[in-house]
Design goal:
CATH topology: Leucine Aminopeptidase, subunit E, domain 1
CATH architecture: 3-Layer(aba) Sandwich
Number of domains: 1
CATH superfamily: Leucine Aminopeptidase, subunit E, domain 1
Structural class: mainly alpha
Distance between the termini: 28 Å
Shape: globular
CATH class: Alpha Beta
Number of strands: 2
Largest sheet: 2 strands, parallel
Radius of gyration: 13 Å
Strand order of the largest sheet: 1-2
Strand content: 5-15%
């Protein structure tokens, strides 16, 4: 298990996007280092930390897509969607790839 703590949303002017992107990059790097072949992510920071779902999903998809483009060490990335709103946001964003 790899644990990451995402940023608390404070309006977007406190480097929240950079910090959230870093959560995904660092988690994926740790997974690669430890030979993990499958990793699952929830919508990091979208619960009690109030990160706007659409913005968070765009960051998650962008960072994971960039990782798999540059590194083939992970076979499967799962986005764990806790509800239809989350599933719809990921479906829309993944369709843009």
């Amino acid at each position: 298990m790899i644990h990451t703590v995402g940023p608390i949303w404070n309006g977007g002017n406190r480097r929240e996007a950079d910090l959230l992107a870093s959560c995904y990059r660092n988690s994926l790097a740790l997974a690669r280092e430890h030979g993990v072949k499958t990793i699952a992510f929830p919508a990091i920071s979208c619960g009690v930390y109030r990160y706007p779902l659409e913005q968070a999903v765009a960051i998650a998809v962008r960072e994971t897509a960039a990782f798999v483009t540059a590194d083939d060490g992970i076979d499967k990335i799962i986005f764990a969607c806790f509800g239809v709103e989350s599933l719809a946001a990921y479906t829309r964003e993944l369709a843009r790839l």
